[in-house]
Structure formats: C-alpha cells, structure tokens
Amino acid sequence: MRLTVRAIALALSGFIPGLAMCPLAFASDAASDIPPDKFVDAGACPFECCTYRQWTVRDSVRLLDRPNGTRVIGSAHKGETVQGLTGEVISTPVAVRADREIPDTPIKPGDTFYVLHYEGEFEWKIWFRGETMSVEQSVVGDRQPKVEWWVKIKKRDGVVGWTLSNGHFLHQDACE
Predict the structure, then answer these.
(1) Are 106 and 134 contacting, i.e. CB atoms less than 8 angstroms apart?
(2) What is the rounded radius of gyration, in angstroms, for the C-alpha atoms of the chain?
(3) Alpha-carbon separation of residue 114 from 35, 103, 120, 129 (angstroms)
(4) pLDDT per residue rounded down to tens, the chain (176 residues)
(5) Are 152 and 161 a contacting pair, CB within 8 Å?
(6) Is the dihedral of CA 166, 170, 174, 175 positive or negative?
(7) Beta strands in 101-174 (DSSP E)
C-alpha cells in the first residue's frame, strides 16, 4: 500500500522519468489561455497622455479603502486639489476570434484572444495565452469590454483612498 501511494505521489510530482512526457500524465494548463473574469491592470493609465499627478476634483467623490471597497474613509470635494497616486483598470475581457494573422504578435487566424482595455494612441491591451500585449484599434474593431478606472488619490490632509475616475477630476491628461 505504501509503495503504491508513494508511486502515485512521485508520478504526480513529475519525478518518474519519462512519465512527464506521456500525454496522458498531466492535463494541459488551459486556464492560462483564458484571462480572469475581471482583469486588473494595476498602475494602468487608460488613455494617451494619461498621468498621475496633481488633479482638481470636478465633482465630489467618496473615498473607499480599496477598489470596489465598501468602507468609506473620506471624501474629496469639488475644487479641492488632490494627488493622483496610481490606478487600476478593471475590465471584463471580451473574446475575439482572429480573422487574420496579427502583426507583432503570435496570433494566427482562428486563434482566440481577449480584449482588455484601451491604452491610448489607438492601441488596445489584449490577453493571448497567458500574456498581455498591445494591438492596433483595427484588430479590436467595435468589440469593447466593460471597463472601470479606479484611482488612488491623496488629499492634502493625508487621507488616501480609492474612487472611480469617471470624469471626476481635471488635469488627468498631460496633453491638455
């Protein structure tokens, strides 16, 4: 009995020579082919000239302890100056079947990739087989995912919290 359990444990851990090469020994890890239901791009700034710096509050907002949080830790009011520290673009990926080879990527016709979010300058972030990469707008077409841009801000009194950007701040665009 002990020998059988030990043999199974060794086989599962890949220590039996030749067994790891057997196609039935291990199922492929297809999970990395598909992104999470909610893809979080930490630190992202989702448009050209987007920048984290000093912003002015356009509309009063509640500050939460984290993105999608429930604990309110403060608020920022219209006209107040805050520091944009960082952000997270949270998207619901959209599956797209490639109809052609996609330049500068390993994507071939018939492959499925996932649209994550707009990056700026007519470029979109996508997921393909566990990796993210950028592609031109023409590759994505009109297939756009649901996206939320959560921003972490710091008020002059030191309070730091998260809120949805949703046009609530001025001066997020360095090109203005």
Answers:
(1) no
(2) 22
(3) 8, 16, 17, 9
(4) 443 434 433 343 343 334 333 333 333 345 588 999 999 999 999 999 999 999 999 999 999 999 999 999 999 999 999 999 999 999 999 999 999 999 999 999 999 999 999 999 999 999 999 999 999 999 998 999 999 999 999 999 999 999 999 999 999 999 98
(5) yes
(6) positive
(7) 112-120, 123-128, 131-136, 146-155, 160-164, 169-170
Residue type, 127: W
pTM score, whole prediction:
0.79
Among all chains, which residue has been given the structure tokens 């030191």?
158
Instruction: Put residue 148 in one of left, alpha, beta given phi > 0 → left and psi -120 to 50 → alpha.
Output: beta
Amino acid residing at 131: E
Scanning the structure block, which residue is given the tokens 């050209």? 48
Sequence spans of domains, the chain: 2-29, 34-170
